[in-house]
Amino acid sequence: MPQKDPCQKQACEIQKCLQGTNNYMESKCQAVIQELRKCCARYPKGRSLVCSGFEKEEEEKLTLKPT
């Protein structure tokens, strides 16, 4: 049986925030998004599927960073 994603709760909270009265406006859900980022930072890369988007975002920032 697969392990439960450790950041699934935070991901669901983002969906609730966006789908609620916030009309999918990401700017109104920044606090909830930040909680997911904090959760993702607590686990090694690849441990949480819901964090994969943040991990990819970080990789892209690093590859675009001028040296």
From TrEMBL:
Superkingdom of this protein's organism: Eukaryota
Signal sequence range: none
UniProt keyword Mitochondrion present: yes
Cellular compartment(s): Mitochondrion
Gene3D superfamilies: CytochromE C oxidase copper chaperone
Disulfide bridge positions per record: 7-39, 17-29, 40-51
GO CC terms: mitochondrial intermembrane space
Main location: mitochondrion
Alphabetized Pfam families for the sequence: CMC4
InterPro entries associated with the record: CMC4, Cys_alpha_HP_mot_SF
SUPFAM superfamilies: Cysteine alpha-hairpin motif (SSF47072)
Keywords: Disulfide bond, Mitochondrion
Protein family (similarity comment): Belongs to the CMC4 family.
Protein name: Cx9C motif-containing protein 4
